[in-house]
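Input (Nitronate monooxygenase):
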Amino acid sequence: MAAALTLGAEGVQIGTAFLATEESGASEYHRNLLHSDAARYTTLTKVSTGRLGRGIRSRYTETLAGRNDQLLPFPLQNQFVVPLRKAAADKQQYDLIMFWGGQIAPVLKHTSAKKLFESIVGEVQGFLK
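Output:
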C-alpha cells in the first residue's frame, strides 16, 4: 500500500489480502490456495461472472481462455456457473472452479483480518510520517 501511495495512487484495493484471512467467507481450500505456490499463476478472465476479474489459473480457466466473447454477460454467466461450481466443490474437483486471487497473493502472510488491518494501518502511518 505504501508503494502505491508513493507512486501517486489515491487509493488501493485490498480484496485478495482480506479474502485470504480466516474471517473471510472464502472456503478453507480457497484460503489455502491463496497462500500456496499456485497463487503465483493468475489470469484475467470473465469465466466466473461475465465481468473481467483476476483468478488463480485452473483447468477451468485455461480451457476457456480466449473465449470471453463466447461467455454470457454479467450476471447471467454467474447464474449459469453457480450450480456447476457447487457440484465441482461438492466433489472436490477444484480444478473446475475459478478461485479469485490478485497479483499480491504470492506475498500474502496474514491469516488474521485483525493482524492484516493492523499491519496496513502501521504501514500507512509510517508512510504519512
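The longest helix spans residues 113-128.
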